[in-house]
Amino acid sequence: MDVVLSDPTYQPPAAPRVRERIAEGFIHDRRDIPFLELMAVLTATVVPTGLALYLPGPFRWWLAAGHLALVVFFLGPFILMLHNTSHRRLFRRPYGWMNVYIPWVLGPFFGESPETYFGHHVGMHHPENNLEVDLSSTMHYQRDSALDFARYFLDFFFLVFFKLVAYFARKGRRSLMIRVAIGETVFYAVVAALLYANWRATLFVFVLPFLISRFGMMAGNWAQHAFIDATAPENCYRNSITCINSTYNRRCFNDGYHIGHHIKATRHWTEMPEDFQRNIRLYDAESAIVFSGVDFFQVWAALMLHRYDWLARRLVQLGEVPRSHEENVALLRTRTKRIEPAAS
């Protein structure tokens, strides 16, 4: 069956414009020019408003509120820019040093401690594929339970640093272990010092974004891996979901195509819709869960509220013989059940 997609793909200009010609001297792929544009916007808005809160004089609560609103508005696009540039380096040599600007300069303003995202997502999550060794695995939780999500979030929030360092130590990946340890330690040390110097500014510039960002990442990952086939939890088509035709995809570089991303982590974000459409029969054969018009955070909220009826109405029927609404609800309920740990 054909599915019409409205998510962004790359449309090359008839002739390279000045910005394309300039950008091609710095970046690997001209399709990533939107990242340069987003970097410029964030550098001109979020960074100066955050730094302005540290200026001497009475604390500007109106500026603090405005700054935090900017952070929340740009948080999704920023994290997905960080995500894409973690998998595919943005700047080419000899400008490779500029690749640290996103995680080390912009990242802390969005609650991202430097190096942790790369280490956790690229170095651990993708190799472990949401299975038992994955530190962010959802397998052993009841995935429509708010209590289980709270346990999942708190475990990540308080223990991820220690668990991630220990994971890389066990795997003998010393370089990643050191990178994560340095990034987290520097972040916490700087934030602690800034809290002592100006706790109000630091609360809005670094602490609240940190809390919001980590909650958002865990809610998103929970939804991305909420519907697991217990008979094949290692199958990317059955342990991940895809969300198509959403505003989220248009703002966040097609992040909804999570199945395709796990199949090939380095696939360019502009190629995701075409890859999905080309392999739609395979998605159907593998009983993949595909939603239309919603994003991961709406899926997460629906699960917390047990709104299976709402989710089922947004489930894409991929096969020639459609399931009934009741069958779709039953399928979704089955795929969120807790999977018991393997006997040791």
What labels describe this entry?
2 strands; 17 helices; mainly alpha; two-stranded parallel ribbon; 344 residues
In short:
The chain has 344 residues and is mainly alpha-helical.
Describe the 3D structure.
The protein is mainly α and 344 residues long. The protein has a domain at 236-335. Helix content is 58%, strand content 2%. It has 17 helices and 2 strands. Helix 4 packs across helix 6, helix 4 crosses helix 9 (199-224) and helix 7 packs across helix 8. The longest helix has 27 residues, at 61-87.
Task: Give the biggest beta sheet.
Answer: 2 strands, parallel
Poorly predicted runs? none
**In angstroms, what is the radius of gyration?**
21 Å
Mean pLDDT: 96
Strand order of the largest sheet: 1-2
**CA-CA gap between termini:** 43 Å
Strand pairing plus helix content: what structural class? Answer: mainly alpha
Number of helices: 17
Helix content: 55-70%
Q: Strand fraction band?
A: under 5%
Q: Categorize the overall geometry.
A: globular
- What's the count of strands? 2
What is the helix/strand order? HHHHHHHHHHEHHHHEHHH
SSE blueprint:
Layout: H1 18-23, H2 33-44, H3 46-52, H4 61-87, H5 101-106, H6 116-128, H7 146-171, H8 174-197, H9 199-224, H10 236-239, E1 241-244, H11 247-251, H12 258-263, H13 272-278, H14 280-285, E2 289-292, H15 296-304, H16 308-313, H17 325-335
Parallel strand pairs: 1-2
Helix pairs in contact: 2-4, 3-4, 4-6, 4-9, 6-7, 7-8, 7-9, 8-9, 9-15
